[in-house]
Amino acid sequence: MLLSWNEIKNSIFAFVLEWKDNKSNMERTKTQPFEIEISSVKADFIQDNTLYGSEKIPPQKKSQTHEEPYATFARMRKIGRTDYNTYNSNYYGRTSYNGFVKQAEYMKDFIDYYDIKKPLQSYYTTYDDMDDIQLRTYFAWRAKVRQGNTEDISLSYAFCYIYELINNIGVSDAKDGIDKLINFWTGFRVYNTKIDSYMRRWIKDYYIVHYIESMDSFETISRYYPIPYKIKKNIINSEQGKWDIKIFELNSKYKLSKMTFYKNGNTKIIDECLSAILKAINNLFNQNNLNFMDLFMMSIYKSEEHYTPFSSAVYIKQNTENKIVKLSEHEIYICENGQWSVQKYNYKYSEFPYAKGYILKIIEIQMRKKFGGRQNLKTPKTIELFNEFRGHRDSWRGIKKWKKQVFELIINKDFEQTIINAIQDYCKAKNLVIKDGKIIEVKPVEIDLSRLDKIKEEHEETATRLIVEELPTETPEPVHNETIKSILVIPSSDGFIQSLTKDEKDLLLLLIESRQSCINCEILVASINEKAISVINDNVIYYRNEVPYIHEEYLEKLRTLIGEN
After folding, report:
1. Helix, strand, coil fractions of the chain, as percent rounded to 5
2. pLDDT at 271
3. The dihedral sign for the CA sequence 18, 19, 24, 25
4. 493 and 536 in contact (C-beta within 8 Å)?
5. Rounded distance, CA 277 to CA 412, Å?
6. Which of 284, 258, 229, 509 is nearest to 405 (CA)?
7. Where are the alpha helices (DSSP H) in 30-86?
8. What is the rounded CA–CA span in Å between residue 171 and residue 9?
9. Burial bucket for residue 298 (CB in 10 Å: 0-12, 13-18, 19+)
C-alpha cells in the first residue's frame, strides 16, 4: 500500500518526538543503554565454540514521567506537537513559533526551584531545544529574574526569555513589557553584551507595534537604555541644520569637531562662529554664481520601504489596527491593513570630501589665530584638492568649467579673507573679547552719564584752581599752544586722543577722576589699548583683580590731554 506524503511526514515527526522523549527519560533516570531481547530467535549457529541465545532485558528503574515537574513538561510538550511544521522553523520537526507561544502561555506562571545549571547552546531557542534538566534550569532561573535577581546563564536561555516578553508572555501591558525588557537588558548585559544589538532594535519594535497615544515618546523611553540610543532627526533642511558644522563635516576628510581646539574651547561660541563663517562662504559662492549648498552641504531625500518587526526573533505577528508611529521627523512607521512600512530620510553626501576638509582646516587656522589656539596649524596643501577637481588629469581640458571656478575660488586670498571678516563680524556682534587666552562674552559698556557730568565739572574746577595757584609774579613770555601740547603730550602720541571715540574718552575720564571700576567695559578697554599700542607701543590701561586701572606713569598726562579735548 502506498502512503501519501502527509502520512510519511507525520510518521517521521512522530518517530523524532518519540526518540527525543526516550532520550530525555534515559538522561533523567540515568539508565544503561537498552539491551534487545531476541526471544523468537533460537541459537542455530556456533562460532568459536560459543553458543549465542536469547537474553532478557534487566529491570529498569521506575520512570519519573508522572512526577512533577516532569508531568507538567510532558503536558507542555503535547501542546507543541499540535502545531509543528516546517514554516519559520530552523530544525525539521520542531514546533512552529505559534506552538512556542502556546507552550509559553501554558507555562507563564510556572516556578521551579533547582540549583543545577545545565548549559544550552541553540539558535532561535524555544522549549523544544531543552531536555527536562534544561527546562528545570530555565524556569528556576526565570523565577529569579522576575524577582529582580538576574543571574548569569547560557545566552540561549536569555534569548528564550526575551522571546517570551516580546510575545507578551508574563506581561500585563505595553508599558510593563517595555520596562521588563529594559530591566532585563540592563541586568544581563553585565554578563554578556552580545544582546545589545538585538535589544536596541527589539525594544524599538515593541514600542512601535504596541504604540498608543498615551505612551511616552520613544526618545523619552530610550533614555533608560543601558547604552546611549541616538534618535536621528531631520535637521538638515532646517535653518539650524543648514549651517551645523557637524553636518557639514560628514564624509569630510578633516573633522574639525574632533580637534583639541574644538573640544577644549567654548563649543557654543565656536559652533555659532562656524555657522556664521559657513553663511559668509555661501554668500561668496553666490556672488560668483556658484551653489555652495549643492556642492558641499548634505542633501536629504525621503524613501519608503517594507518593515518587519522583530526580525531574527521568535515572534508571532499580531493583529494590529491601522496606525502611524512617528519616532522622529526622520523615522515614521505606518501600519495599514496589517502591513508595516517605514518612511526614512536618506542622506546624499558631497562629492568633494577633500575640498570640505581643506575648507575646514582653513577655518580652524583663522579661528585659532583669533581665539588664541595653543598651536598654529600649517596651511593645507592643495594637491589633493587639485586632484579631486581635475581627476589626476594634466590639464583642465575636458573638465567642467564650474569645477575649475570652484577650485580657483577656494585657493584665492579672498576666500581666506572672507573667513577672517566673518570671524571679526561675529565677535563684534556678540561683544566677544579675548582675555588671558579665554573667550569672554560681555555686555555693552554702561556709564552713569549723570555722574560723568559731575566729574567734568570737578575736573574744570580743579584745572582752574591749579592755573590760578601757579601764576608767576612776573608776566612770562607768551607760549604758543603747540609748545604746550608738545610738553604735555605722551611721547609719540600724535593723534591718540583724536582717534578715541566719545565713549572711549568718557571711560578714560571716569577711570582718571573717580578711580572706580566700570561695568562690562572690556570691549572699550581693549579698543583703547589697541590704539595706544599702535601709537606709543604700550597699554595705558591694565587689570588688577579683574578691575581696570590707568598706569600711574600716564595718569597725569592723560588727565591733561582729556581736559584739552
Report:
1. 50, 10, 40
2. 86
3. positive
4. yes
5. 16
6. 284
7. 70-81
8. 36
9. middle
Q: Burial level of 370, CB count in 10 A (0-12/13-18/19+)?
A: middle
Round to whole Å and give the CA distance between 71 and 284. Answer: 82
* CB 202 within 8 Å of CB 162: yes
The answer for residues whose C-beta is within 8 angstroms of residue 297's C-beta and 6 or more apart is 236, 242, 247, 248, 350
Task: State the amino acid at position 338 in one-letter form.
Answer: G
Given its phi and psi angles, is residue 376 left (phi above 0), alpha (psi -120 to 50 degrees) or beta? beta
Q: Are strands 331-336 and 339-348 parallel, antiparallel or unpaired?
A: antiparallel
Query: What does the pLDDT look like over 414-458, one tens digit per residue?
Result: 899 999 999 889 888 888 776 655 666 666 555 555 555 665 666
Residue type, 141: W
**pTM for the structure as a whole:** 0.51
What φ, ψ does residue 37 adopt, rounded to 5°? -95, 125
pLDDT tens profile 509-559: 888 776 555 666 777 787 787 778 777 767 788 777 667 888 777 777 777
Residue 262 and residue 367 in contact, taking contact as beta carbons nearer than 8 Å: no
Helix (H) or strand (E) holding 343: strand 339-348
Measured CA to CA, the distance from residue 483 to residue 486 in angstroms comes to: 5
Report whether 127 contacts 76 (CB < 8 A): yes
**Domain definitions of the chain by residue range:** 65-222, 239-297+351-441, 301-348, 449-564
Which 3 state secondary structure label does DSSP give 42? coil
The full length of the chain comes to 565
CA 511 vs. chain centroid, Å, equals 50
Grid cell for residue 446? 554702561
